[in-house]
Amino acid sequence: MTLNDGTVIDDTRSDARQGQPVTITLGDDSLFARIGEELATMTPGDVRENVTLAAKDAFGERDDAKVQRFPLSPEEAQSMASQVQVGQLVQLPDGARALCLGLDGESVTLDLNHPLAGQDLCFELELVSIAEGLNIFGTPMVSFTPPQPASR
Hints:
Belongs to the FKBP-type PPIase family. The chain is of the alpha+beta class. It is built from two helices and nine strands.
């Protein structure tokens, strides 16, 4: 996966990924719809280059309303200043991530957009193999992880 300028965002052939292909399940909504559609038309050994997704079909357009300033108590500001730096991605209590754009003694400014929002993405796809999924009594089964309740 690359950006329009050629910046590599993810590569399953990288040393960090040990060159192992990614196992995916078509139809479980874990992929961008366009990528799933493209893979569904491929056979093992097929390679598709320059499969492009517009930002709206990937992580969405940037939304300036998602850049928000949150007031902090003096204690919160002190605690946050010791743990967070401007430019750092932080995880919020609900599990979402945000980019810290500003931090002072009174507030923190967070960008709640996905880091790749507003970016068109380009993929090179290679279908290595197809495996039949689990069937129980002739019915295909799909992995499902129920949402976890929010912790307090």
